Amino acid sequence: MRRQLFFGCASAVVLFAGLGLSHPVFAQQTTGDITGTVTDGTGAVLPNVNVTAVSVGTNASRSGVTNDTGAFRIPALAIGSYKVTASAEGFKSAVQTVDVLSGGVIQASFKLTIGQRNETVEVEGTAPLVELSPNNNNYVDSEKIANVPLNGRDFNQFAEATKSSIIFGLSISPNNAAAFSSSLG
After folding, report:
1. Above pLDDT 90, what percent of the chain?
2. Which residues form the domain of 63?
3. I need a labelling partner for 160 at 20 to 30 A (CA). Which of 79, 90, 136, 150 fits?
4. Which positions ≥6 away from 146 have C-beta within 8 Å?
5. Residue 50 sits in the same domain as residue 104
């Protein structure tokens, strides 16, 4: 009877631990976004401006429109170089080239000048060396793990040192009683 109770409890604990650890794993992101604002020569925001991103490599295009605060966002663009054009009635079109990075949010802001729509102002420049995307530097390699200051290199200490980590364990006492424990770090 005791043995059946032990194996029943142990099976239940293993089942629940397996279900708790079987959450989906999210793949690394392979796209990026272009975002920015569009203003006029005085710095006032321009709503309803058409913003188009055309891939330099594939010639595929995606478009967006600025909102009431002059902001736009073109999400989920494939990695590569894009020619981004902002155009509005009564203003010269402005063009700049940006490089979309994996998981990156690239800034492409425009200042439109008064003129005919068929006149184009091309902005030449490179992206800043400091990337503003919150998704950078989240890659953990073996060197970073090896340099984490842990006493004895116990993987449980590493898991507890990270935010929102959950560790499930099963301990069996000498009198064959199974115990389930969880540790929130």
Report:
1. 41
2. 31-123
3. 136
4. none
5. yes
